[in-house]
Amino acid sequence: MNQYQPGHTGAVEHASAQPVAYADTPTRLAFLRKVYAIFGASMVLWMGTTLVVATTPSLMNIAMPLMMGGFLGFMLIMAAMFLLLRMTANNYPMNVVGIGLFSIVEGFLTAPLVYLALAKGNEAAMAALQQGETIEGIFSQGGGIVTQAFVITAAVFTGLTAYALTTKRDFLWLRGALWMGFFALVGIMILSFFGIGGGLMGWGFSLAWVVLMGGFVLYDTQNILKRYPENMAVAGAATLLVDFIIMFKHILLMLMRRD
């Protein structure tokens, strides 16, 4: 989800460099390699944190209340993380620290969902958790649904990214519609928190999030390439990371609800 817009207020407005789209081809390619290298490193940190927390009972005792704390608590955490990313977007090395902390916190927030998916996928996996089984052993017993969700998310994300980078079509016009959809879905979550429209929070709700994040991947990929300056590679990586994590969570929820 987009972190940067030309002319927006905030820390990123002090970036003096021109968008990388005005640079020569080698510079643009170097910028994209840097964005995706940082994105890849952040993914490893997020996935590693998720797996360690999901398979360590003492850490799950910390992470599970974050998930069970309700919608308002979750939104406060997410708002704090977005604020962290925005404040550090153009301030090296704080931007690297910011995306690292974001990846770790998101790992804690993702771990309870992965834990529940393991429980649904195979009861033997839950027994293994209690017996101190290794991560490899646990996922060989009950991690199929998590692996499926990750592979599907990676395939969709990669396909949309490749298309956005190679097509001549312009997806920047999607910005208004995407944010309208985002706030509509958040509104449904708020209503559900107050006990209104709870029936909407099902398989179709997760599908709507997946479709929405697919649109954000198209938009954000082109926005990074066409509007971000060279010194905003970390912010670009953070944007793509948010898109991937939200898509993964809702694909996992869809797989968990299919039975």
Secondary structure: elements and pairs:
Elements: H1 25-54, H2 57-68, H3 71-87, H4 94-121, H5 123-130, H6 135-142, H7 144-166, H8 175-193, H9 203-227, H10 233-256
Helix pairs in contact: 1-4, 1-10, 2-4, 3-4, 4-5, 4-6, 4-10, 5-6, 6-7, 7-9, 7-10, 8-9, 9-10
Give the tags.
mainly alpha; 259 residues; 0% strand; globular
Describe the structure in brief.
With 259 residues, the protein is mostly helical.
What does this structure look like?
The chain is mainly α. It has one domain. The protein has helices at residues 25-54, 57-68, 71-87, 94-121, 123-130, 135-142, 144-166, 175-193, 203-227, 233-256. The radius of gyration is 19 Å and the shape is globular.
Q: Tell me, briefly, the overall form.
A: globular
Count of separate DSSP helical elements: 10
Structural class: mainly alpha
The major β-sheet equals: none
Structurally, the number of domains stands at 1
End-to-end separation in angstroms reads 31 Å
> What fraction strand?
under 5%
Poorly predicted ranges (pLDDT <50, ≥5 residues)?
6-16, 133-141
Percent in helix: over 70%
Mean pLDDT: 80
Strand segment tally: 0
How would you spell out the order of helices and strands? HHHHHHHHHH
Structural Rg: 19 Å
